[in-house]
Design brief:
There is one protein chain. With 167 residues, this protein is of the alpha+beta class. The chain folds into two domains: 1-62, no CATH class; 63-167. The chain has five helices and eight strands. It has helices at 79-89, 97-113, 121-135, 137-147, 153-165; strands spanning 2-5, 12-15, 27-34, 40-47, 53-59, 66-68, 74-76, 118-120. It has a three-stranded antiparallel sheet with strand order 3-4-5, with no helix packed on it. The protein has a three-stranded mixed sheet with strand order 7-6-8. It has a two-stranded antiparallel ribbon with strand order 1-2. Strand 6 (66-68) and strand 7 (74-76) form a beta hairpin.
Amino acid sequence: MVCSLSGVNGKFGCEVMNCPYCSNPNTRVVDKRETGESDVTRRRRECLKCGKRFTTYERIETLDITIVKKNGRRENFDRHKLLAGLLKACEKRSIPREKIEKVVDDIEAKLREHKNTEVDSRFLGELVMKKLKGLDKVAYIRFASVYREFTDLESFKKEMEKLIKNK
């Protein structure tokens, strides 16, 4: 069972945590750890039917963050979308998923520190670029090529030269 307290409206809610392998609702917590962020708890669970283990994260719901896109359109911040983008940039790199998830946690925490609940997409993009640059240079270049919309080899080359120069 996963329970959370919403910071938005103070509601308390619980839901059954089904095993992702066999969908059995009967699981037990075998290990619980705080992740370093005060609002995230990591739980290692074991299915009582199939015996497989999996990890869940429990976090306090907070106010929604709105991302203001380049064209002025607004959309809610989606940590899963951010994670998917980082996983794509880090594809076929030897980067543990936990490190990538830590980057997502750090970026989300930075966004929540922002004074306003509306955040410019350029600010988010630069946060991602900064984190990726420290994590993996190839993943950084992959992300930069999409984020900065490289249109030719020259713009790609310039970014590579900046990266090599700042080494």
